[in-house]
């Protein structure tokens, strides 16, 4: 499997103006999967100009909502038609287990296009009861304009889909910019958009690194940036976007607490938290990472979840037995390893894992599932986002302190509560500052539910009707009827 991918600008596949390229690697083996065009400032300018022209072209601007819906539905059909090859491509480029690629990434990508296909005919304004005699007022929902959609490396296809589908449903034009570590399925998605019949210039795709991302964020002719990635980069995007006050949506980091109450079903909590923590090897912004366990149950919980974690099969994502695949890059392995060493140095008790596997896996970016107990709130592993297969167990005696301790983080993306008591569940859900709170369940997503966070976890919400708000502007029209 070798690729040579180019840039999609104005309906044409072209090389970068500079001729620059970069390699993308299989994180399980380190082998080169292909060579990809490396977009620079000139390519960004060309893509933005193409998107700006497409925004006013009658082939897109005058397309009826029903026709736009049919295009989105066609993209969903094509995703499903090519599901097996797309899933394999996602696994080879990102590392996620093939089962996750098929049942999470591909399934969600198709469903989000269908969900927003349904929205195309329901984006409506309203009349307003103004108190000026002889005057009518009504609102229109219009596209924001040219949108830069910048996506992360952990779920490249799925997150590209949940940005692209609502942007198109609202009539915007876009430039997709995948993370340089995992570009291949986003390029494949752009190719499916062309195949579906979306007019030239409506969807552009630029592969490249920080230079392209920075140029998009600060570009004077881009009206909106939607970014998913690190909080550090999110802060830079806010500064760059301020140059022309472009709209910004950010979905950033997380440090999700999971509360295990004294009355919780420990076996269910172990199974659920293990999956909630280690999906995609913990490379999930909503992954459960801080486990607050009643002191009467903490030893039982720690022993059971450590034993279960140690038994999970590690290997290449294409192996059907694999549960823990590789991390996305060697650089990220080093980040996880640094924080694990910090946990040891600061006095946390390593129960299992804590190292890279040897043998036939030594060449890949693998890290064993790691469980620490005896963690305190101020330790690095309890404060910093690890984004890997590392679980930190903290104990508590006073349930009245739980909300404050769970909220002792700059992040606020997700949280989880395990209890049989509805009063506990609802009171904690109301007190914990997080965009989504899950009770006795995994951190599932659905196109109909809003997604986003508080604090350093970002601005705005994606999916649901909230995404329609994010990708439209409201215009008021005043009519003198006197």
Q: What characteristic shape results from the CA principal axes?
A: globular
> Proportion of β residues?
15-25%
Specify the structural class: alpha/beta
Task: Report the sheet with the most strands, covering strand number, pairing sense and barrel closure.
Answer: 7 strands, mixed
Instruction: Figure out the total of helices.
Output: 16
Termini gap: 70 Å
What's the gyration radius in Å? 23 Å
Number of strands: 23
Overall residue-averaged pLDDT value: 97
Proportion of helical residues: 25-40%
Low-confidence segments, given as residue ranges, are none
Task: For the largest sheet, list the strands in their spatial order.
Answer: 15-16-17-14-13-19-20
Descriptive overview:
The chain contains 16 helices and 23 strands. The chain has helices at 41-56, 58-61, 65-81, 83-94, 98-119, 156-169, 184-196, 210-218, 231-241, 266-278, 298-310, 330-345, 380-383, 402-406, 422-431, 464-470; strands at 3-5, 7-9, 12-14, 21-25, 32-37, 127-128, 135-143, 146-150, 173-177, 203-205, 224-228, 247-251, 256-260, 288-294, 349-352, 370-373, 390-396, 411-412, 414-418, 436-439, 454-455, 458-459, 472-480. It is globular, with a radius of gyration of 23 Å. β19 (414-418), α15 (422-431) and β20 (436-439) form a beta-alpha-beta unit. The chain has 482 residues and is of the alpha/beta class. α1 packs across α8, α3 (65-81) packs antiparallel against α5 (98-119) and α10 (266-278) crosses α11 (298-310).
């Amino acid at each position: 499997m070798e690729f040579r991918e180019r840039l999609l600008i104005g309906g044409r596949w072209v090389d970068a103006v500079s001729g620059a390229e970069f390699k993308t690697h299989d994180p399980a083996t380190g082998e080169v999967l292909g060579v990809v065009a490396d977009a620079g400032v000139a390519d960004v300018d060309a893509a933005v100009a193409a998107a700006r022209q497409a925004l006013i072209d009658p082939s897109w601007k005058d397309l009826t909502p029903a026709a736009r819906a049919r295009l989105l539905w066609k993209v969903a059909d094509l995703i499903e038609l090519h599901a097996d090859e797309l899933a394999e491509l996602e696994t080879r480029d990102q590392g996620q287990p093939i089962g996750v690629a098929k049942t999470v990434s591909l399934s969600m990508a198709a469903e989000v296009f269908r969900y927003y296909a349904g929205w195309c005919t329901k984006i409506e304004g309203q009349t307003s009861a103004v108190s000026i005699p002889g005057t009518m007022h009504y609102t229109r929902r219009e596209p924001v304009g040219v949108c830069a959609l910048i996506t992360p490396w952990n779920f490249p296809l799925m997150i590209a889909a949940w940005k692209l589908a609502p942007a198109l449903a609202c009539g915007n034009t876009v430039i997709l910019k995948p993370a340089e570590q995992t570009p291949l399925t986003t390029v494949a998605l752009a190719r499916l958009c062309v195949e579906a019949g979306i007019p030239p210039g409506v969807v552009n795709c630029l592969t490249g690194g920080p230079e392209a991302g920075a140029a998009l964020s600060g570009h004077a002719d881009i009206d909106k940036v939607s970014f998913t990635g690190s909080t550090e980069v999110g802060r830079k995007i806010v500064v760059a976007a301020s140059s022309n006050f472009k709209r910004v949506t950010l979905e950033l980091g997380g440090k999700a607490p999971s509360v295990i109450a004294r009355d919780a079903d420990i076996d269910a909590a172990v199974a659920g938290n293990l999956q909630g923590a280690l999906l995609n090897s913990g490379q999930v912004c909503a992954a459960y990472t801080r486990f607050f366990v009643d002191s009467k149950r903490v030893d039982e919980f720690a022993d059971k979840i450590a034993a279960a974690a140690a038994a999970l099969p590690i290997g290449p994502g294409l192996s059907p037995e694999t549960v823990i695949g590789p991390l996305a890059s060697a650089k990220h392995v080093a980040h996880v390893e640094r924080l694990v060493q910090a946990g040891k140095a600061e006095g946390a008790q390593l129960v299992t894992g804590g190292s890279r596997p040897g043998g036939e896996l030594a060449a890949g970016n693998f890290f064993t599932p790691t469980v620490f107990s005896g963690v305190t709130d101020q330790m690095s592993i309890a404060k910093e986002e690890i984004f890997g297969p590392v679980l930190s167990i903290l104990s508590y005696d006073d349930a009245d302190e739980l909300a404050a301790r769970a909220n002792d983080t700059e992040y606020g993306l997700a949280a989880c509560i395990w209890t049989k008591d509805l009063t506990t569940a609802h009171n904690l859900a109301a007190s914990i500052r997080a965009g989504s709170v899950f009770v006795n369940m995994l951190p599932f997503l659905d196109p109909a539910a809003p997604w986003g966070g508080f604090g350093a976890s970002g601005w705005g919400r994606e999916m649901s009707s909230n995404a329609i708000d994010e990708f439209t502007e409201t215009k008021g029209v005043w009519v003198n009827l006197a």
